[in-house]
Specification:
The chain has about 90 residues and is mainly α. It has a domain at about 10-60. The protein is about 65% helix and about 0% strand. The longest helix has 28 residues, at about 10-35. It is elongated and about 45 Å long. The two termini are about 25 Å apart. The mean pLDDT is about 95.
């Protein structure tokens, strides 16, 4: 796993992904609490967006390059195959 001391730029990118994720989740919670409803399509899009951020954090936790191709970005955004859900 990269760290702040070993790779400050990539560490900052990972933290930024988590911060973006937090912002999306907070926005979704506010929207749902305020509106009292959400349609399936909007919910799917917003949860999918949140998953993409979280997946990139996991899939790029050992990546040593800040620049990646579009195909690598898509792969990094996909649900991990090396992570077992707990709980």
């Amino acid at each position: 796993m990269i760290s702040l001391s070993s790779n400050p730029v990539l560490w900052t990118l990972l933290v930024q992904e988590l911060d973006d994720l937090r912002g999306h989740i907070e926005s979704l919670v506010r929207q749902m609490a305020t509106d009292g409803r959400i349609d399936d399509e909007d919910f799917e899009i917003q949860v999918g967006h949140a998953y993409a951020h979280l997946n990139r954090v996991w899939n790029r936790r050992n990546c040593l390059r800040s620049e990646i191709s579009d195909d690598e970005w898509d792969a990094a955004s996909a649900f991990p195959n090396d992570l077992e859900p707990i709980g």
